[in-house]
Amino acid sequence: MTTLARRPDESATADAGTETAISGEQLGRWQRIRLILVLGTLIAIGPLTIDMYLPALPAISDDLRTTAAGVQLTLTGTLAGLAIGQLIIGPLSDVLGRRRPLLLGMALHVLASVFCVVAPDVAVLGTLRVVQGLGAAAAAVIAMAVVRDLFSGLAFARVLSRLLLVMGVAPVLAPTLGSALLNWTQWRGVFVALAVLGLGLIAITAFGLPETLPPRRRRAARIGDTLRVYGSLLADRTFIGLVLVAGFAMAALFAYVAGSSFVLQDQYGLDEQEFGIAFGAGAAGMITATQLNVRLLRRYSPQQILLGSLVAGTAAGTLLLGFAATNVGGLAGVLIPLWAVLAASGFALPNAPALALAGHGEAAGTASALLGAVQFGVGAVAAPVVGLLGTGSTAMASVITGGMLCSLFILLVVVRPGRLPAPEPDVVPVNVH
Asked: Domain tally for the chain?
């Protein structure tokens, strides 16, 4: 366990509590790596909750006697829970600190996973998936807030890219793990695995994550203050624009998540294991892009990378839509431009949040909550739209392309990247000794 140094000016309030604040000027290399691994492991619960049951969607549809659109609503429920939960947990973490809301959220996730195992119909399953998303939201928003507690400027973008590398293993492994589980259990066994995983993550949080928000930096527990913070964020045109850019880029990603199992298995005949491989290949490309982003930040600004990635993603999405509509190239004609869109997302998703949160370190939890809520909220809308348009590749491609196009439009018209302030220098304001 890391030994933590206390700031000399901290009052006895910290002594009375159960948490010790991190202090200092600079993280050691191995301490930073350890912190990123812990945060990456925690934040992985969101992608695992979303993706692990994807290979089972057709089977769930048959077992619960519902339609493809009906079973996709259970995915929407998870995304809605992630969105709503972040709006609640973000401000709560600015009041109570980071650890306690995270532990409570993970406990809620475990309980919901257990009840999902015995869900009798798609309505109950969808409701429980909302609760499951509420619990997973704690990991999503607090991990981002912890990073913002510790880093800013280009350092924030670099650390976020490293965090996405660890987090990116989850969507690569999740469908493959789900496929492996389905070899010897039914779809309900996936939720047993999620419950066990949640218990493990509670232990990791309890023993491996120090408190990063000292009592003297916490906000008062007043609803009015929270609403004023949200109001100031909503009045910030640049912040809201970048949040929407990230949200529509995430919508393109979740359109793929919602539609890929039906497109690749039902339309192109892949089995559950082959689907897991194809899904993992796309996620691997996205992870590679997040790591190349770290190198590109040495030569280019986050604004430049964000703009270039959205232009490339929109072009790739247009190709995807054309190939899907005409069936030119068959499976390869869908997968290759689809993987290109995912790679473009890998460049966009670290930089849009980094730019959005750069000026809001004083309310990192609340700002991260609003950012995450919009990302998952827009994703929650994208998922059923794919189902309503149909289960074919054209429906999925239409929503993916629309998401990338909206992101690019908002960046150019609302945010105007040329007007963004220059990125802050690398700042690491706190340290673990």
From this structure: 1
